[in-house]
């Protein structure tokens, strides 16, 4: 099982956890980088030969390399255990299925990741008659009023995709516990370095580990963590084992490598993004910037309550038509057009996501940027020249 050990608990700072938790040098003959157990099967010793059974049977269920990544993530999140998956949706869908019941009801924020919304709206709803209610998430009262007698899960994402709305996770978790309702939160944006939802009562935290935890745009991976050992055991034995979506050992080794440098990489993403945000907010062609922690962010009370810092992902509403906004994105030279984020590279996308903003009194297209590790002045110069296609003030 991927639970923390007494040895893991000797490391208390994020930097030390990332560097050393789970590595157990003595166990692996002093290797500073633990070996990759790239095998499917673990044979058990014959009775009476004096060899200790390590407890591994089949990599679809568990694997020593995967365990190391899981123990690092559990320690970072302040959980008791964690599980790694073949993708972020593998983690998210397994967590949701743990709480979902046929004929039950789910409350979820309406600006969560699109595939998460689709899983509930287009699959669970149609196949298993799971009811759902979309909420903005900004109001605790709205979420409380959405609860029904058959509600089994409240699904949060704070800050949420594209629009970066936050939820008061402590209050929502309290309401859910009082009613026996499970809670899940996607923490991919913040990572456990900047936010730890488990400490505020959330049952399961999910990550698309392809993003900041991996950090190099070379793996597809997911993870979840919980303070409840029974939840970890149940998902490992049922949803993960039966759905067959365990992480590959080689991907786990690359995830471990990424986690080791997370305390160095993430602050640089943040520092670059903060400078880009100040530049955008100073340009009259930008109507609104969505970035937690910014002076103009509308939920700074929640930001200061829950988050240590915002990461490298932001969005904004520029002036202009849809055609002009798409032309802005196409004119960028250093920002690649790509749907993921969290790697070393800067990205820019715009889509059909709309935001109603009081500044213009109508729905407007949102541009999302991930600010990478390039020279920030180069990135700002690139944005500046691309803004020339937008209407002059």
What does this structure look like?
It is a single chain. By secondary structure, the protein is α/β, with parallel strands linked by helices. It has two domains: 8-259, Aspartate Aminotransferase, domain 2; 264-389, Aspartate Aminotransferase, domain 1 (Alpha-Beta Complex). It is 37% helix and 17% strand. It has twelve helices and eleven strands. The strands form two sheets. Strands 1-7-6-5-4-2-3 form a seven-stranded mixed beta sheet, with helices on both faces. The chain has a four-stranded antiparallel beta sheet with strand order 8-9-11-10, covered by helices on one side. β4 (151-157), α6 (169-178) and β5 (182-186) form a beta-alpha-beta unit. The N and C termini lie far apart (60 Å). The mean pLDDT is 93.
What is the structure about, briefly put?
The chain is of the alpha/beta class. It has helices at 14-20, 64-77, 88-99, 114-128, 140-146, 169-178, 191-194, 229-243, 249-282, 300-306, 322-331, 376-386; strands at 81-85, 105-109, 131-135, 151-157, 182-186, 204-208, 222-226, 286-290, 313-318, 347-357, 362-370. Helix 1 (14-20) runs antiparallel to helix 9.
Entry keywords:
12 helices, 11 strands, 2 domains, Aspartate Aminotransferase, domain 1, 7-stranded mixed β-sheet, 17% strand, 393 residues, single chain, alpha/beta, Aspartate Aminotransferase, domain 2
